[in-house]
Write a structure and sequence with these properties.
- Helix content is 36%, strand content 27%.
- It has helices spanning 46-53, 76-83, 99-109, 114-127, 144-157, 174-191, 202-207, and strands at 4-14, 19-30, 35-39, 61-66, 69-70, 84-87, 162-166, 194-199, 210-215, 218-219.
- Strand 1 (4-14) and strand 2 form a beta hairpin.
- The protein is globular, with a radius of gyration of 17 Å.
- The protein starts with a strand and ends with a strand.
């Protein structure tokens, strides 16, 4: 498994009227098998960090490394397809596809046969506690916690080294937040993937192996 690291990262949002420094000299390393929580107030730089790790953007200065290679020098479309899965607060489940179809979609998109995709999806759904009785249900027929589990299973099914989650418990109650946080912690260890969660939720922070606190674009703890 590859290591992800940020080396003296600065990122400046520029518009016609102003420049805003979202990240200011951030250096941090993320290892496989660990569950990381990136915490901080709104505007602290959390989402910008997630975007750089996901390969959606490049830093203004500094370097983002994946497996020792600068992401400026790789095919970032391929990197996102093969190495990174992103779970959004809005989940982005396909509303007209059922549970099993939502999870098999990225596998079939990458060229897996339908039978192989179903086998992998079934395994990953079982890993997050979704039983086969719910495979044919549409997302709207599931609870918020169940929908989040399906989104996590889809990320796992993609077999990427890094799973990124943006406020995955933002719309859940405390009980379901604890279940999702424990699930992500267990999956990081069992699947040897790097799980990085951007969060305001103290429950997620409590379960994380490592907490990175951002303030005004800097790591403060």
């Amino acid at each position: 498994m590859s290591t992800m690291s940020l080396d003296d990262i600065k990122y400046i949002y520029k518009s016609k009227y102003q420049s805003v420094q979202a990240l200011d000299g951030v250096t941090v390393t993320f290892e496989p098998g660990k569950f990381y929580a990136v915490a901080g107030r709104s505007g602290s730089g959390k989402t910008t960090m997630l975007s750089l790790i996901a390969g959606l953007d490049l830093p203004t200065s500094g370097k983002v490394y994946f497996g020792g290679t600068d992401t400026k020098k790789i095919d970032r479309d391929r990197y996102r397809l093969e190495h990174v899965s992103v779970i959004y607060q809005s989940l982005n489940l396909f509303p007209l596809l059922n549970v099993i179809e939502n999870v098999t979609f990225p596998l079939e998109y990458k060229g897996a046969s339908k039978a192989d995709a179903i086998a992998v999806a079934t395994e990953k759904l079982a890993a997050v506690g979704i039983d086969e009785a719910k495979f044919k249900r549409l997302p709207s027929m599931l609870s918020g916690g169940e929908q989040q589990r399906v989104a996590i299973a889809r990320g796992l099914a993609s077999k990427t080294e890094i799973i990124l989650a943006d406020e995955p418990t933002g719309s859940l109650d405390t009980e379901n937040s604890r279940l999702i946080a424990q699930l992500l912690k267990d999956l990081a260890a069992k699947e040897n993937v790097c799980v990085i969660v951007v969060t305001h939720d103290p429950v997620v922070v409590e379960y994380a192996d490592i907490v990175i606190k951002l303030s005004d674009g800097k790591i403060v703890a």
